[in-house]
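[User]
If only I could read backbone structure tokens as easily as an amino acid sequence. I have put the entry right below:
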Amino acid sequence: MEYRYKQLSHETEQRILEDRAAGKVNPWSFRDGDALRRDMSRDKNSLLRPAFIRDIEKILHLPIYNRYNDKTQVFSFYLNDDITRRGLHVQLVSRIARNIGRLLGLNLDLIEAMALGHDLGHTPFGHAGERYLNELFEQGTGRYFNHNVHSTRVLDVLYRRNVSLQTLDGILCHNGEFELKEYRPRPLNGFEEYDANVESCYVKGGKKIKTLVPSTLEGCVVRVSDMIAYVGRDRQDAVTAKIIGEDQPFSARLIGTQNAQMINNLIVDIVENSYGKDYIRLGAEAYEDLRTAKRENYEVIYNNKNVNEMYEGSIRPMFGELYARLLADVRGGDENTVVYRHHIRQIEENAKYYQNFDYRSEEPNQIVADFIASMTDDYFVALHRELFPKSRYRIEYRSYFN
């Protein structure tokens, strides 16, 4: 079956053009002047730097942002510059979400802030690394580690950037593993309710996270765009990595099977079903296609035996060795250890500009989780080799010439 690139219907296109010509503003677009911050005396709006442009720049200038470029998206063990890293993924989410938001008349700066910040808390080695860190963190604390929650911790706690409630909420609620046919923004009554949601995520884990819905239309757009950005791109990368063949059959009734088709056709479908409404909606066929695409990706890519053998055989035990060693070092208080030199001091250097933040009083398991989540793939491997030179666990990368 040959899939075509869909276009907006004539009726929808005319509505958009007429509304623009009349200067009509989307009444559900979030306004910069309504942004809330923990400290409203700082970071005031200006013509030069409106609220969410401030958030974007706060995110871009974090040292953690630069580490996106060496964090796995899906395929960890390939020396191949054409395979997607997390740094490209967040840009793709931003681009797709801004395309949708532009057509719907939403706040593009808020969308960009959410999109660029949504994976700041992601671990090295992708969702496998997140799973292993969660297991260790839960064993030590009875609480859950999830990358969306940790992304907000990076901005709001560790680096204390006074980021807006709306950006933080969009990041917290972005998790693209839980797809919905319809996204209706859920009102959020200030930081007290937001903080309760964050704490509930730590206590209940995925049971709470799958109930989260963003408080803004912009956040809803970013959430669905996260799925659109990875589902087709992961297939494209799987072909590059020779995990699947170029002719690997995938099912689809509407959106297509190739990355470019899927992005285009899902954007069109969302705009057709959402324009002029106070919610984001996918058509029935597009929604079922997206669910099917995700399921098939799990079957042939994410649960692929060859992909997972290295994770289970090497990455999992390496996480265990590093976690135990770093936890002992935090508890031991030796400032010559790497967790103090490379992590705790950096956080303290940042925190000296703020009052009432004693990072060393944090629960030791939390400090270790903060450190490991901040690592790039290469740093993780190098640190493990440094601390465990005789360990039998090693990463074998598939070279450019293999």
